Amino acid sequence: MGRVSRRAFAVAALSAFTMAPRASAAPDAPVAPTPPTSPVPAAGPPAGRAVTGMRGMWLATVANRDWPTRAGLRAGEQRAELVGLLDAAVRRGLNTVIFQVRPTADALWPSAHEPWSEYLSGSQGRDPGWDPLGTAVEEAHARGLELHAWFNPYRVATHDNPAHLVPSHPARKNPGWVVPYGGKLYYNPGLPEVRAFVQDAMMDAVEKYAVDGVHFDDYFYPYPVAGQSFADGGTYSTYGGDFATKAAWRRENIDLLVRETAARVKKIRPAARFGVSPFGVWRNAATDAKGSDTRAGVQTYDDLYADTRTWVREGWIDYIVPQLYWNVGLEAADYAKLIPWWAEVAKGSRTQLYIGEALYKAGDPAQPAAWQDPAELSRHLTLARQHPEVRGHVFFSAKEVAEDRIGAMARVSADHYGTPAGIARRQPRRPVGPAGRS
């Protein structure tokens, strides 16, 4: 998910300025979670509590963005920090935590397929001495929170040197799976064996833990890097014969990943939901009449090969959380225009619509004036209320939920979360047919 640091992730440019995925503008220095100031509620929502929509936060672990605050902390220190962030979610009136457990083809649980994450111990493959995902599920449920496991399917490393991976890493054992691009390493989404492997790696966690959801971020094919091409021409020659263009073949590769993952989640853990949080612009209206009134330099359909509109309309995913990380009135990507566009996309589908909110921008002096106003995010939720298709919001990210630099999160909680948080609202899952229609 483009959600960590300037050096780690690609920037998507708008016509006259930078328009980045959520993490590219996020500060690098970790901030310790705020100690809890109120008791933690009893496990689960009280009997009779009204069901609410999604009130979520992302908890990013790649490059130690939110947690742990640095690699190499003792197990007890890591656990205390994690529990502190869960407590912060409760204090803010949230009901869901989306926990990044596979940031770079690694694992925050004892995986049968991939090494322990370096973001825990400081060394890839080193056992941290405890089970972060298992603990997160247990502690979240004890607080009445849903815990969704967040996976990045294809990112292998935030560097481009395979020799820096542990020798047992699948990318070392299968070098033909890996494509260096933009200073990073990625698995090649066009290889059927890669698609099968990454699903096996992710489903290992879904089988072992009572997660409430499975979550993908905005990275499918990587964000474009000027002057570079993703070297999958040979793979296209082998597997792309039925497609007129490489772009169409790439989109089919990602469609297959999404549909196959949805089917496997349903089979393994029927109560869990499968959702995606894409970059907030599918296509500009200037590119496609069905697109949004935006002028984004990145379009998920054309640049990441993720046809997010189709996934919603065909009901392939249970929920979608477009990253609408722009302020009201922004000329190139106006939050107030994107909300009704996404609401219309979700209208009549089985896919629930939640909105990704850029809490990390609130009070950041590098951001435009709108983000210096603690009420900006509260206005977002007020606008979204005009559209019944919007069933909730997710905030990026946990560090800012706890720190709340200028009180923007407190303002949201006061204005919109006055009633206790129930469980995130669900709709019954319906089987997906051979054509992908529900």
TrEMBL record:
Q: Name one Pfam family in it.
A: GHL10
Q: Which UniProt keywords apply?
A: Signal
* InterPro entries referenced in this protein's UniProt entry, alphabetically: Divisome_Glycosyl_Hydrolase, GH, GHL10
The highest taxon in the source lineage is: Bacteria
Q: Where is the composition biased (Pro residues)?
A: 30-44
* Cross-referenced Gene3D superfamilies: Glycosidases (3.20.20.80)
Against SUPFAM superfamilies, the record matches this protein to: (Trans)glycosidases
Q: Note down the stretches annotated as region Disordered.
A: 24-49
Signal peptide feature range:
1-25
User: Which residue numbers delimit the Glycosyl hydrolase-like domain?
Assistant: 54-367
The keyword Signal is assigned to this record: yes
This protein is called: Glycosyl hydrolase-like 10 domain-containing protein
Source organism (scientific name): Streptomyces ambofaciens
Q: Lineage in the entry? A: Bacteria, Bacillati, Actinomycetota, Actinomycetes, Kitasatosporales
